[in-house]
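assembly run, all chains below
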Amino acid sequence: MPQVDTVFVGGGTPTQLPSADLVRMLGAARERFGVAPGAEVTTEANPDSVTPESLAELREGGFTRISFGMQSAVPHVLATLDRTHDPARVPEAVRWAREAGFEQLSLDLIYGTPGESMDDWRRSVESALALDPDHVSAYALIVEQGTAFARKVARGEVVMPDDDKTADKYLLADELLESAGLGWYELSNWARDEAAQCRHNLLYWRGGQWWGIGPGAHSYLHASAGVPGRGRLVGHRWWNVKHPAAYAQRLAAGESPRQDGETIDADTAHLERVMLQTRLRDGLPLAELHPAGRAVVPALVDRGLVVTDDERLTLSLQGRLLADAVVRDLVD
Amino acid sequence: MTVPQPGATPPSLLRNFCIIAHIDHGKSTLADRMLQHTGVVDARAMRAQYLDRMDIERERGITIKSQAVRLPFTKSTGDDAGTTYVLNLIDTPGHVDFTYEVSRSLEACEGAVLLVDAAQGIEAQTLANLYLAIDADLHVIPVLNKIDLPGAQPEKYAAEIAHILGGDPDDVLRVSAKTGEGVESLLNAIVDEVPAPVGDADAPPRALIFDSVYDTYRGVVTYVRVVDGKLTHRDRIKMMSTGAVHEMLEVGVISPEPVKAGEIGVGEVGYLITGVKEVRQSRVGDTVTSNVHGATEPLGGYRHPNPMVYSGLYPIDGDDYPTLRDALEKLQLNDAALSYEPESSGALGFGFRIGFLGLLHLEIVRERLEREFNLDLISTAPNVVYRVVMEDGSEVTVTNPSEYPTGKIATVHEPVTKATVLSPAEYIGAIMELCQSRRGQLQGMDYLSEDRVEIRYTLPMGEIMFDFFDALKSRTKGYASLDYEPTGEQEADLVKVDILLQGEVVDAFSAIVHRDSAYAYGVALAGRLKELIPRQQFEVPIQAAIGARVIARENIRALRKDVLAKCYGGDISRKRKLLEKQKEGKKRMKMVGRVEVPQEAFIAALSTGDTGSSS
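ok done. output:
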């Protein structure tokens, strides 16, 4: 089994746990798979769940990269998002992380929160840039079904902003980040340089394989052999039961936490590659496209949504905002 | 007591009659009761509304195809009490679209029962059919039905009927088809009042076709009324309009199931089976005679059924086109009035242009196609037949807006109708306002009773096709009834309004409308499309235009954002499944140039409603 090149602890607030626990988990990965020298080891963190000591412990335990869930610099926006941290805490946490010696530091921002003005958003991006991060992720708020927030929207207690306004915020973010020297390398991700790009996420987008550990985690492994009659099998994807209690119960009973999964055949893998690689600044190799998809490329170029060179297709700024539509056209 | 047999029933014992009634006024229930009373169906075998065969008929409570049933009835009153007569009940279609079929059914009778709901009074279509019956010299027996209903007002409506027929309110019979009350008196009255048929038994046979029905097992079953001579099962018969000769396979009467007979004679009503497979080969109104020593003069009144309104029918799923074609072929076996030809639309793909007798006919055909053949269809706005005269004197017949000529037009002629509305008097104002807005011209108004009026208008047929009936019903709380009959044509200032999406004409939305309503039509439809068509990756102007002149304009703003911001390892499967679903959805989109228009937008925009010139 090859050694792992990246480890990413996230999807919640890992730093709720004592640093020692996170370090132990990394140790388990090291034991089970082996972690390659120079690996990227990231944890997500909430600005108010870290201390200089906890950060130092993580760094010493082998974590190389930290991603803070800053979300916004504006108190009323944070309140709408149910984020409890004091915005003033972010610069402190960033300073401590730097002092602890993390190689890469990223800040997560969210735009398009109900009630957020254009100025609020500008303030958030500028506040983030003032901290000189290596990497910024900026996501438009997605209201997941079944959440308390979705119920608030359904009841009309909060009104989701107009998509056009949200598009303007993306453009503003891109302008501010680029002029601060952070270049986009994926739709919602900007990095100081290639070294600052998140290698772990790039692995997802480039069709790499990974093990996912924990409730609801997805895993993806390349298939070693084909399955007769189903076309070439490219990979297996599966995911664990979502609820932490159910997950714990399975493990305690010595059962697999796997909830369900799917096999990825060549056609599905193609679809996923177009879907994911189109989102990257590196773009999509034109050779990846089927003839029908290739045929729509000139029209997409005319409409100013993509640019191409001899080998690759890349989204334009306008095209990034319409990436899903572009992908639909390409996979026709 | 012996029952007179087919082929051996003297005309003096025959009574041929029909029932004229509005939908829901109880015609089928009365027919059922007569079947039961005369003993041809026992109560156990009784299916409600026995004579209405098709499911749609039973569900809608209307009779589309007429039938004829032979009822032996033993007189219970008068000098001839105890004599067994043969009553032929000829069922007539009740709707305005089938006026010609009604007139042929009436032609086969000597008498008519005018059946009116005692709680509702006479309706416009009933009145129209009554006039047809009077024109055909039928003896009319007025009857009020549903006298058992709490809301019945027999005095009031008896007076109304007496006023129309010019008789005495006391002569109006009262029955309850539901309970059977008064049905026997009615049967006695039919024998007493309806004249016996008259014909020459020794002349070459002549029989009127008043209905023709396709049966899966038997082929076409033709219903006839013998006028002269007799038809026997050994005959070879000739259709006088075409000269076509057919082998006679079977002659019989319906009572109420088919009963074979050796022959049927003067005044009798029965069926013929000849092995033909399409009702078009056995047309309503035609005269049947024998091939050898046949008659030379047909009975009068045959008319070829001409479509009055055209509409395009398109399968929502293009793959269903062959199914639609086969389905139309099958329906045509049983519907001589149905005509169709293939048509293609830039927006809707391949379909058929179909001619109908009227809107109900259209609805019935569409419903049968959807129900019996499991098709999902889009129909384009109904179009009447326009005659366009060009400046160079040439003429163009337009049954579809796409046929509207582009050159220099001298005049445009549209079909007009004589429309009759019966309504409670309180809605006179609302009805006149509606008719006026549809370019109607008042021809007259009469009070049928203190609070009911008959209003007569000349109305362009195209205006009636445009949701007139719905508008009438909604303005009169459903109380008004409408009848119309084509009376000719008139010159009118008509224009074709096109709808353009991003500069491309969407043929399915073009309409021929009066110049005065063109603007309202354009604004309404453009506004509606703006709501129905999702934002695209580019701005989409929607224009309504007469020729090159734009009369209304809307804009669908370009979609600026269509991207899911986050996509990490745990999102990939879900996002891919969404993409696959969207791909499927895209297949159901119709492309108009570069614009993706959802099917639903076509369906919603074409389902008439408020786009009309009524606005």
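Chain B has 14 helices and 34 strands.

The longest helix of chain B spans residues 515-532.

not gonna interpret more than that til we talk
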